[in-house]
Amino acid sequence: MSTTPVPSPSLLPLVIQADHLPAYHAPYPSRHPITKQRINGLPPVGLITKPVLKALEKERALKFFSLAKEIKSCDIKKDGWRVHCGACSECLQKQKQDKNQAAYKLSVLCVFFAEEINEKGKQARTEAMADILNRWKAEGRFPEATKLWMDELFPIYAYPQSRAFKDTKSAARQPLGNVAFEMERAGVPLFGCQAFGVHMTAYEGEGEDMKIWIPRRSADCHRSPLKYDSSVAGGLPAGHTPLEGLLKECEEEAGWPEELIRKYVKSAGMVSYYEIMDDGAILPSTYTYDLPLPPRCSPAYVHPSPNDDEVDSFELLPVQQVIQSLHKDEFKPSSAMVTIDFLVRHGFVTPDNETNYQEIVRRMHRRIDVAGPGI
């Protein structure tokens, strides 16, 4: 009697927990709203929802670029509108009667900074966004977003050829140089901008003997309390390079000194995906790092220990136990993504043992189509 092997459960549901925007394409405006020059592949700074668009209607620092479309009507209704068929006798008669009283519906294609703001540069754009977000916070708008207020600025990027850099084109082409303005971290999801962070996976041993240092998040964490996390993880605030941000987080979260990290850490790429929230979208682009720790007998070895109130404890887990914990949904979604990426890169998740390997790899490296560092 032959038996069919039972396939292992797929890790794809864990990826979808973090990356849950279906494939979607919509045309961006083809001409710049001010210069009228044709835009060739110019990505937007962010993607905003209708509630945010409504809240921006009376903001003087921002302008709307809209398209007017004539509304005609007959007895056909769609989504509450009386729409035209363009051919029935009623429509033709009404067109004759109201040919000088046409009604129009405006569709907003994009929002942009007023020219007087752009002329004053990065600081003026930063101050304009701070004024808007501080007012919304005081008025109680978008409470799910503003309750996460951290008084921490994040860099917001624009395409290097944007008019925002007309006087600083050379600087904008330097690594991480195309920052158009800075924004309070809590406001980034509202405006659908890329949110950059750093995640590091620290491990001991190789192959089947590998063990990974996994922290458990504090019970006081607002998101995913008591869930497993990446060895070290954190947002990347304005003024920090990815490595500088990582060094800061390693000291704060695990007590790992700078000299250890600089000597052993390895840049491992990026993970990017779409995370939709009630008040907008987080477009995380995470710089990933690996830390193969030296042998325990080495003077350079440092045991991780919680060094702030975000980490409850550290555990050194065998790879197979890490995979089991992923399947049990014990990880924070973003950290699950980074951990799965690590397992793929180190050959633990392969096309031979993961049914949805191609989809997993694709969704962990989304093309965001929102401005970030570089082109």
TrEMBL record:
GO molecular function terms noted in the UniProt entry: 8-oxo-dGDP phosphatase activity
Entries under PROSITE patterns matching the protein: NUDIX
Protein name: Nudix hydrolase domain-containing protein
Entry superkingdom: Eukaryota
Domain Nudix hydrolase: 191-339
CDD domains for this protein: NUDIX_Tnr3_like (cd03676)
Pfam families: NUDIX
Protein's organism: Cryptococcus amylolentus CBS 6273
Coiled coil residues, start to end: none
